[in-house]
Amino acid sequence: MTGTRAHLFEQTLRVLEWNRLVDLVAGQARSSLGAALVRSAAPASGLPEARLRQDETTEMVRLQESHDPFPSLAFPDIREPLVRAAKDAQLEVHELRDCSVVLDVAEEVARYLRRHRVDAPSLAAAGGVLLESEGLGSVKFDIDRAIAPDGSMKEAATPELRRLTHHAHDLKQQMRYRLEQILQSRRYEEVLQEHYFAQREGRYVVPVKADMRGRIPGIVHDISSSGATVFLEPRELVDLNNSIKVAELDVEREVRRILRELSALVGRHAADLHARLAALAELDAIAAKGAFGRRIKAHPVRLNDEGRIRLRRAEHPLLVLTREQVVANDIEFGEAIRVLVISGPNTGGKTVTLKIIGLFALMVRYGLHLPCAPESEMAIFPAVYADIGDAQDLTRDLSSFSAHMTQMIELLNAATQRPARDDGGRPGEPALLLLDEPVTSTDPAEGAALAEALLCRLAQLQMKVVATTHYGSLKALAQTTSGFANASVEFDVKTLSPTYRLFMGMPGGSSAIEIAGRLGMDEDILSDARSRLRQEDRRMEAVLADLQEKHRRLSVDAERADQARREAERASREAQDLLARLEETEREERKGIKRKLSEQFSRARAEVQATVDALKREQKLIKAKEAKARLVELEHRAVGELAPAQTAVPVEQLAPGDLVEIAGLGMTGSLLEAPKGKKRVRVKVGEGEVLAGVANLVGIGKATQNSPERAKPQLQAGRLPRIEDRDEQSVVDVRGHVADDALDAVIAALDRASLAGAPLLRIIHGHGTGRLKAVLRDYLKDSPYVATFRPGDRPEGGDGVTIVQLR
What we know:
The chain is an alpha/beta fold. The protein contains 23 helices and 24 strands. Helix 9 (159-184) packs antiparallel against helix 10. The longest helix has 84 residues, at 535-618.
């Protein structure tokens, strides 16, 4: 980048407050290296690299919010110790401990990336060096064996160090024993200033009164500040103090030897440690971007290199952090538009919109998510330049106008130097230029003319330009010229205050007189100012105000319609979910009712069987009738519980063709004759007919045109089990039915056969796959009605029939 372009870019970063945003991102890092990398990172060079960086941040955010969050990346900076270790220098204990911490974090992150290699491929690539099979586990093991987590040398680092440490400890214990004897000795009673011992220059001493130090032979090592006490090493302790000193020197020498060995080990692997440190710093920088994005509620967006900007509900990232309420705006800047002119009142948000576009253009090149809706799209620009604010430079004796013009000339030169095509032969990507009220501080007519010429030239140079203005001629240019577009910020004429809402496609009035009035300007002055406006200017301001009001109402209506649509969609989803839950609840309740009724029927059948047995013994028919009545009552109750939505038709109202259910048999059919005045009637069931008692009929529907044809058994569509009454034997035919339906029919037949006192029941199930036969015979083993059962003889139907002997 040339000096001029570098100067322009630095000024752009300053006016957009980019460094402030970068500092906020760096503050999310857990390591000093990660924070430094955030501050020093270069922007992506093109669309592929920008997409890769965004993918890294997206994967990091997803992992940070998952049930298995990314490990903490808090680790020390060991670059300087590694450089010294590579040069055979000896590292200190705490520096080696820091190397171990880095290796520990690297191992933890490597394990995590292996677990998430598939769902976070970009992060796995960024930390690829951590995943290398040849790790540094042995280095960490040797360091941890010698150095404690608090940065102290372990006593058990080597056998020799343990021996030397114990020896020094034993000598110190001997010294303490000797000192205790001295302190308690009558010989020292008068000469001691206090009854304690201390250390001076690594040697043990006792406090002696200064005027009595001649009474005890020894070496003076120190004198108190008052001069009243001398710290004396008695002669009898000199040899033991010497031994302790020698022992401590031996310990220190062994510690130094261990540190030299460990430092040499680190030095041999310094390059690998540097690589792992760099990978951890890169991941920490990505984690900082993800954490910052979550803080400002940002999202990843689609990227393009065609100059297309489509932002939905975009917010200024710095305002999001400092204000509770921020007005979100839609910004549309298609690839066919070269120049976007934003007009409207002062303090209305024009400059904020400029900064949003500029910051977003920088953020996507650094891998940052944007505070806007996820369906947004942002262009990648190779360069971003901004001329915002007062450019007056007193040091160069330049007025505001001169300074702006100088900067415009530099921008034009930079645009001219941009290559027309890239390395692939495609047209070069356009630079983004942000101009805040270009060519002001001069005669309005000349300034407007110069601004028009400048914007037209920038459009010819394929620059992507966003400019704010109060010039009416620029608004007209944007409305009538191909490649130009208008936008405006809203001003509420009712409250005389800006709303900070951006309207695309239409210019806005400056509302200078109204704003001056809101700020307290004298009304007479305001009236005089209105009278001095040219008639066409007043008419234009009125038209713009009317257009903006209509646009506002349309926007409000569209927003309400969109909200109503979203609410309707949400209500529809909730209704579908509720219906699904209700259906599931109903199924579960029916299952529960069926289990409950099955238990009741089992108990009732047991009572019937007990009554039958008693009947055989006592010949009391009344008990059998009572049990049968109880069973019928339970069956009627089951019909009501299992079909609560149906209203039973009274029997006396039934006519031929009406649908009825035969309680106890679990089947439905159509009446072939009216039941009134009869005890038994014929019922058409499927292709056959059954003679049923009127007392067992439940009317479930009046006759319809198709009722005879659709009369079907309740438990199974198709052919019904056929039951035939014989003199001493009942027959039930369940061929072709599913196991559950066949079992229900067999149980009903057992009920009737037992009540009728029949000795046998013949069950026709056929051969088939054998599953139906197995299910029925498995039930018969535990049935309370069954004494025994056997396969049929050849004349009886062979193994396709089961003969049941009843109790």
